[in-house]
Amino acid sequence: MTEVRFHGRGGQGAVTSAELIALAAIDEGQFAQAFPSFGPERRGAPVVAFLRVSKDQIRIRSKVYQPDIVVVLDPTLMDIVDVSSGLKPKGILVINTAKTWEQIRKDYGFKGRLAVVDADRIAMEEMKVPITNTTMLGALIRAAGITRLESMDRPLDARFGKIAERNKKAMQRAFDETIIKE
Amino acid sequence: MPIQKGMEVSIAVSEAVKLANVDVISAYPITPQTHIVEHLSELVADGELKAAFIPVESEHSALSAAVGAAAVGARAYTATSSQGLALMHEIMFVASSMRIPLVMTVVNRALSAPINIWNDLSDIMAQRDCGWVQLFAINGQEAVDLTLQAFKIAEDPRVLLPVAVNLDGFVLSHVIEPIELPDQEAVDRFLPVFKPTLRLDPDQPVSMGAFGSPEVFIEVKKQVEEALIGSQKVAAEVWKDFGDIFGRTYKPVESYKAKGAEILLVTMGSITETAMTAVDSMREKGRKVGLIHIRLWRPFPFKEFFQAIREAKCLAVVDRALVPGGVGGPVGLEIKSALFEKKERPYVAEFVAGLGGRDLTVEVFAEMAAKAERYAKTQKEMRYEMIGVREK
């Protein structure tokens, strides 16, 4: 079972990220579960969402405390939230940042596996909005697999209709541009 | 053949209500029930569900309108949570004593104060004695299936009682997971059109909910109680039919790795699945731990419960509500008093946990099982223990 924690801010679509990838995984015949860190919705406040994907039925409903993967949608969260909390020793931190992986290591003292992508820039260029939730799915899939990239098509079409193509393009670009440091 | 699709459990429940071809939905939105009634109002507005959607001004009215709708022969539905359910309290008794067959989803949430939108079972447990059939879902598939079954149980002429289908707020209601939605044709075979025994009809007038003087009141109460107890037999038939058509079997009490288990965790609702994972890991370590979960809470399935625990030396009961000033939680209370008639009975360790959304992890279930085993060894005298409380 792979467990993922998404960090974002209210309104940035962290919950949607977790949901979309769960839908894609279920379409592939995997078992998956996605849920928000429940609470009153507050735009701009730090929020988390959780995802579990497994070949077998998932029988656990508590929050994810020891994720295999952490996805950070908003680089400003790095200064106020311990995003790597509980991350497994072989886990990977996937960050939306304009910084290089060397800078991230230096600034935050993070020594584990790391994947970086400038999702803000990609989202602005492809979708003209600084919303990185679908873009970051490309980085997540590149860094950790979980689903095939093409499996995202159906959930993205269903959720975004006319603007699904732009989301797919941003996701593909993030997939291509993500830099992974083992 | 239907296949499993990923969907939010709340949405799946509204789709089940649509598959049940309800005639009337009356509801007032409250977190975390909201997604269910929002989606139903969309289905009605889009013409996908031919039903009347009555947006009322309070939950008291939501249940009152559903009672009225069912009284004229409509298949009626509502849903609520927490304070909303509390506001329905007086109509809860009216619905059961008037023998009104309707279905309500209760998306379980703590009762205030302090104000809290998260999950526990204090809302439904405060309605325990309202005379409703009460069912608990452990996952999204069960939430869908129990919703369909609830209408068939409620509307059976031998029952004619309201049914509450409970699902845990947020931790179940807001989760995306794989769910198989049945075909409409199969649902229609399982659940035919509602044929009321009596209905309010100007052409054939009857009185419903009339005055009950001391000469008749106790007889009415006895009939309602007999109908509630009798609903278990009907539920068993409904579950048999459901299994024949959809291939999923349901029982009032379910066992998991209970064979040869000396310690049994006793759970209700979606915490059951996390507890199962705890059982798996304890079994791997050679511990004789199993689990039972109670799906049919009212009427309480005594026979099946005794059957399910017959090999156990110790029960670790997990309650998610408190009976303040009493012996513990409602489930522990029920079980302890049920066991009183037995000469040989297992040790009962009663825990109250997970109030107001406190997360229940695999480790917490393992902790409760270990404590129960320890307490059973010394036959420790205990009423209950509250788990995970910060004392400093």
Describe the protein's architecture and organization.
The complex is a heterodimer of chains A (about 180) and B (about 400). Chain A has about 180 residues and is an alpha/beta fold. Chain A has one domain (about 1-180): 3-Layer(aba) Sandwich (Pyruvate-ferredoxin Oxidoreductase, domain 3), CATH 3.40.920.10. Helices cover about 35% and strands about 20% of the residues of chain A. Chain A contains 6 helices and 7 strands; from the N terminus they run βαββββαβααααβ. Chain A has helices spanning about 15-25, 100-110, 120-125, 135-145, 155-160, 165-175; strands spanning about 1-10, 30-35, 45-55, 70, 90-95, 115, 180. In chain A, strands 2-3-1-4-5-6-7 form a 7-stranded mixed beta sheet, covered by helices on one side. In chain A, α1 (about 15-25) crosses α5 (about 155-160) and α5 crosses α6. Chain A is globular. With about 400 residues, chain B is α/β, with parallel strands linked by helices. Chain B folds into 2 domains: about 5-245, Rossmann fold (3-Layer(aba) Sandwich), CATH 3.40.50; about 255-385, 3-Layer(aba) Sandwich (Rossmann fold). Helices cover about 40% and strands about 20% of the residues of chain B. Chain B contains 13 helices and 15 strands. Chain B has helices spanning about 10-20, 35-45, 60-70, 80-85, 90-95, 120-125, 140-155, 185-190, 215-245, 270-285, 300-310, 330-340, 360-380, and strands at about 5-10, 25, 50-55, 75-80, 105-110, 135, 165-170, 175-180, 255, 265, 290-295, 295-300, 315-320, 345-350, 385. In chain B, the strands form 3 sheets. A 7-stranded mixed beta sheet of chain B has the order 3-2-4-5-7-6-12, with helices on both faces. Chain B has a 6-stranded mixed beta sheet with strand order 9-11-10-13-14-15, with helices on both faces. Chain B has a two-stranded antiparallel ribbon with strand order 1-8. In chain B, α12 (about 330-340) links the parallel β13 (about 315-320) and β14. Chain B is globular. The mean pLDDT of chain B is about 95. The interface between A and B is medium-sized, with 24 and 26 residues.
